[in-house]
Amino acid sequence: MDVNRIIPKNIQELKAYVPGKTIEEVVREYNPKRISKLASNENRFGCSPKAIEKAQESFKVINNYPDATSYDLKQKLAERHQTDPDRIILGAGSESLIAMITRAFFAEGETALTASATFVGFLVSCRIKGISLKQVPVSDNYGFDLDLLADNLTDEVKVVYLANPNNPTGTYFTKSELDNFLSKVPSDVLVVLDEAYYEFADGYAPDYPDGLTYDHDNIIVLRTFSKAYGLAGFRIGYGFAHPDVITAMSKTKLVFEPSAPAQYAAMGAMEDQEFLGKSCDLVHTGRTRLYEILDRHRIPYAESYANAVMAIFDDEQTAQTFTENMLRHGVILRRLPGFGLPNCVRITVGLDDEIDHFAETLEKINR
Ligand SMILES: Cc1ncc(COP(=O)(O)O)c(C=O)c1O
Question: Which pTM was predicted?
């Protein structure tokens, strides 16, 4: 059987997502003395023991399906964010919520608008659904150009996707920029405000807009337990929107996501605000160290408000050589051609000794 005959063109043309290399892969290929995994914007500081403890409770009933409505967790999130549970939706990571949005609001061939260099998960979900994707260039400092996006809000655009802070650039846009943009968005266009890195920016980035303070029916705010809470392996993210938007998204949700351990872990994690604060502080000090190291080697970078710093090279070949040389010494970094930035490399903020490893390796390969 020629399987390609039954695969739709948009799926045939889809390039398989290439995640950052795993530790096992690097051991197999290079067997370096030491490994620092700085490729996937994970929380290098771990997660709260309270999350693990609570997740273990779910094992006692693991023979049962999880609560499809995530009732307890929704109550907890509603209380924390002073909103109604019917404005909240849970999914297996915010990536799954993005997929729900593309399933719920688009017929094939309809249009979404975003920037040229942003979270690849949105682009993949759009391509799977056969959505026509309109991407406008990022600004000179690699941020979302909200003026240019507003200029491109043509009649056919149904959804605008904004990540704040953005991945992979780490840049953010301010409240006044967002307010100005929203004033130009028609009320029947959905604005997806992906705040996966919210905790790293809130209180640190001047004039950073908290998406939850907006009372617009057409805004969907996405957050995740994967980053500051350190629960990426559990796969759990959450979204806030008007109840009608939530209802539409819920219809396209895989009924039993997120898993019971994920729901429990998230509730445990929310009990430990101390861990959250510590994890954000460590990212801030680590980021400053990365800036110092990159400055010392005269490698330009974009100022970041997420848990990674994007280094900028003259061309793709230089970025590729740099990443390979680092990898040979066990420092796993992320190249970004799939994100529209072939000359850039993303460095996740690591633990102190991982940053030491990064710095020592850079000295070695630049000698
Ligand atoms: C901007 C952005 N949104 C969403 C996600 C997906 O996160 P998760 O599915 O783990 O919640 C990521 C992951 O890197 C991201 O960078």
Answer: 0.96
